[in-house]
Structures are given as C-alpha cells and as structure tokens.
Amino acid sequence: MKENLELILLRVSQRPDIDKGELDVASRLIINSVCEGLEITRAGIWLYDENQTLVQCTLLIDKGNDLDNESLVLTRRDFPHYFEALDSGRTIAAHDAITDVATFEFAEVYLTPLGISSMLDVPIRHRGKMIGIICCEHQGKARQWLDDEMVFAASLADLYGRAISANERADYEQQLLEANRTLEQKVKDRTKELEAAQEKLVESEKMAALGNLVAGIAHEVNTPLGIALTSVSNCKEELKDIYRDFENGELTEEGFKDFEAICSEGLSLAETSLMRAANLVQDFKRTSADQTSLEIEEITLDEYIPRVCNPLKPMLRKEQIELSIDVPSDLVITTCPGIIAQLLTNLISNAQRHAFGPSVDNEVNKVSVSCGKSEKGIVISVQDNGKGIPAELHKKVFEPFYTTARDKGGTGLGLNILYNLVRQKFNGEIDLVSSPGEGTTITVCIPVES
C-alpha cells in the first residue's frame, strides 16, 4: 500500500475520536480521510434500513459544493441492479460508473447531473453483518480504482464499524452509571434495566478493540453484584418477619438474636461482594484512563503491571487461558503509563485471539507476563504456549494490515501500532521468538531513560 495511505490509516486508527462513542465526530473524521486519501471531493455513508429494502445517506461531504450533509434515499425497487451488487457483500469498484452493471441505473438521475464518473462502494460491517457502505465518488474524467485504494477504503469502513461499537458502548456505559447512581432504588425494584444494560454492554464490547476487556469486567462484576443483591433481599425478608412478630407480640429474645445473626452475616457478605466489584471497576477505570493519557510519571512495575493485567483475566478465562505474572519488586521506571497499558493489552489480547484454537492440544493454555532488567533497560515479555508462528511470517506480523482474523473484525494494525510505539515513543527494541507448535514470545526492551 502507498505510504501516504498507510499513514492516513494509522493516524485515523490512533485517533481517540474513533472510540469515544461520538459517532458523528468519528463519521466526519473517516469521510474526510477517505476524501484525503483518494483525492476526491465527494463521499458519504449510506446505511441499510432494517429490512435492507433501501439505503439512506446519513452523512455526505461534498467539498466541491460546500455541502456536509444531504438527505438521500435509494430503494431496492428503483435500483435493482445496484442492490443486487450490494447483496454480494463485496466492494463495488465502478471505474466507469455510467456503464458499470452495478451503477448504470444512476446515470441520468444522479451521476450525470453531478459530474460523477467513477464510484467506489465498500461495505460497512457490524457484528458480522453488512449494515451499509461508504460511497466514494470521483468527479471529472473516469479513473481506474487501484487495489491499494480499495483496501484503504475498506479499512476505513472497518473503522466505522468500530466507531458504531464504541457508540453503543458509550450508551450502555451511561445507562450503567445512571443505574449505579440509583442503586438502592434499583435493588428495591429488582430492576431489569441494569441487567439488560450489562448484557448489551458485554455483547457490544466483544466487537471493539478494547471490547474484550470491558466484556470480561462486566461478566466478572455481575457475580458479586448478584451475591450482594441476594443477601440484601434476604435481609429484607428477615426484617419483614421480625417486624411481623413484633406487631403480633410474638417477638422473643432468641428470635431477635437469630435475626441479628442472619442479617449480620448477610450484610457482611454483601459488603465483601461489593468491595470485590468496586476493586475490579477501579482497576478497569485506571487502565482505561491510562490508555488515553500521555502524561509522564514514575511507576512501580510490580504494582502497575498486575493492575493492567487483572481486568484481562476474565476475558482469558472465557477461552480457558491461564494468565501468570512475574514482576520483581524493585523495578521502577519513569515513563508514560498509558503506553505500557496499551502495550500489555495489545500483546495479551493478540495472544488470546491468535495463539490458540482447535489445532492446539494443551492440558492448560497459558499466557505469561514477565518483567526484568537488563543492561539496555526494562524488559517486558509476553509468552504463550499456543500454536506458534512460522519463521517466514515473523516479519509480516508487524506489518500494517496483515491479519489472519479480518473476518472477526481484525484490521491488522494492532502489532504494527505496538511496534511503532516501542520504536518511536520509547526508542526501544521489540523481538519475536516463535516456531510452529512451540508457542510465541514477544519481548520489549524499554530504555530506562524513556
């Protein structure tokens, strides 16, 4: 891929706007980047209705006519050949849009009046389903869309799918915050909203780059919350019984002592469970906050690394993967904690996604995080006992857009971004040791002065 297209994709993928949950901001960033990379002035986002009988333009940027929004609808009934092409789920590269079998129906009503000669439509997918397209429209003399340009546009469409997941995640997180502010009332009413919001949050987070982390936390927090709710409900029932005995003049000293013992045990269990949930949430909040912060501070690695890794354990347990951490107690470094957090999250998530599978026959699947000190600086290693990587692919795994999981939403930028963080931000070194059947070890060396 051309270097300028790679740089645009890398820049967009690293922008926090993609994962903030503000879909309008992310949409404009993506469409402006499409225009910049393809050197066109007109592009838009079109989304299916529920039954896929039409596509509606949700954002259209036309720099030639100084437009940044336009309400347009295309129906299957009016443009059957175009929708037949969309149904294939593949990129439509109409080099000559006037005569192309997929787009010729637009010639008189759309293409000719606007001077559009070539169209490139790439599918937007969310949760494995095609939900719309990014439409790139070239005005002027017809052009031949290059393979690099089609991959570039498709990668931006993948980022739009990620932005949709982030938008859903933000909505669900807001619902959770509101539920927590009224937790006492929610307990009394045995609300269903919290459970629904948590379930949706888990499902949405599975689709995001940071998603597995939040999914694991939501799952893990649900257990102590459920225990706490059960304990409080039981205490309420006991309170009703004791009050009834009091009203009827049947309250005895022994009955009151039994009541006190049961409630003390129940409230103690509820307190312990809520503290466990609070600690999990605190670890997650710190890790999430760090990954969006570039502040420099001194950190003690034997405290910081477990705090980053702990929220990942639920995600790994779902895949029957054990996580072990070995960090000496005397390692201190002055650096950007957010980059350390992103580095560890990327490496562990990458091992969880790629290292294991049906071909791996281990008694126990393991991922190990270790840390030490060398002459060059601090050394952090993430090792797995998975299927390993053939020698001929060792260099490829750090190249942008190389992925074996594109069908699962992978963009191939994870390890490439990690490589650039280590080399550019830390001026450090990154090394991969792996062979088929022997697992993989990725080692990062960070100079102490970083």
Helix content range of the residues, please? 40-55%
User: Number of DSSP strands?
Assistant: 13
Quote the beta fraction: 15-25%
| CATH-defined fold name of the largest domain | Beta-Lactamase
Rg over CA atoms, rounded to whole Å, is 27 Å
Order of helices and strands: HHEEEHEHEEHHHHHEHHEEHEEHEE
Give structural notes.
It is a single chain. The protein is built from 13 helices and 13 strands. The chain is an alpha+beta fold and 450 residues long. The chain has 3 domains: 3-164, GAF domain (Beta-Lactamase), CATH 3.30.450; 170-289; 297-446, Histidine kinase-like ATPase, C-terminal domain (Heat Shock Protein 90). The strands form 3 sheets. Strands 3-2-1-6-5-4 form a 6-stranded antiparallel beta sheet, with helices on both faces. Helix content is 49%, strand content 19%. Helix 1 (3-14) runs parallel beside helix 5, helix 8 (211-247) runs antiparallel to helix 9 (253-291) and helix 12 (337-354) packs antiparallel against helix 13 (414-425). The chain is globular. The protein has helices at 3-14, 23-38, 80-87, 107-114, 147-181, 183-189, 193-205, 211-247, 253-291, 301-309, 313-318, 337-354, 414-425; strands spanning 42-48, 54-62, 73-75, 92-94, 116-126, 129-139, 297-300, 321-326, 332-335, 365-373, 378-384, 429-434, 440-446.
What's the gist of this structure?
Residues 169-207 form a coiled coil. This protein is of the alpha+beta class and 450 residues long.
